[in-house]
Amino acid sequence: MGIDGVGKNPGLPPTAGVGTGAVSSTHAPSQAFQAERTGETSETTGAASTGSAGNVGAASANSPLARLRSGEIDVNGYVDLKVEEATSGLKGLSADELAFIKGVLRDQTVTDPGLADLTHMATGQMPKPA
């Protein structure tokens, strides 16, 4: 007794270019991809980029994480510094509005389980409510 389709037509014939590593012109990029190393000047544009990709994840001496690890601040000080860092770009707000946003952000960082877990993973300590 046979099973339907077994031993019969093996399927569709192979399509040209599929599986051969060829890329059709509709999938080819319109221009070559160029990446610059950060902190260096591009020879093609002459522009300097900022930052350093080699230091991703490394804590500079005055970063909140480095200050926490050195014992200069506690986990709540770390949260406060991160809130300051996060709101540093908010220009044009009144002092009351900015204080409200910082308070809500700090409360969320401490009470939201996901954010508290991220802080715990970064610092090794759980933040405490104010």
Report Rg.
27 Å
Count of strand segments: 0
The gross shape turns out to be elongated
Largest sheet: none
Derived structural class: mainly alpha
**Tally of contiguous helical segments:** 4
In helices, the fraction of residues equals: 25-40%
Stretches where pLDDT falls below 50 for ≥5 residues? 40-56
| Fraction in beta strands | under 5%
Could you explain how this protein is built, in words?
The chain has four helices and no strands. The protein is elongated and about 75 Å long. It has helices at 64-69, 75-87, 95-111, 113-123. The chain has 130 residues and is mostly helical.
Outline of this structure?
The chain is mostly helical and 130 residues long. The chain contains 4 helices and no strands.
Tag the structure with descriptive keywords.
130 residues, mainly alpha, elongated
Q: Could you outline the blueprint of secondary structure elements for this entry?
A:
Elements: H1 64-69, H2 75-87, H3 95-111, H4 113-123
Helix pairs in contact: 2-3, 3-4
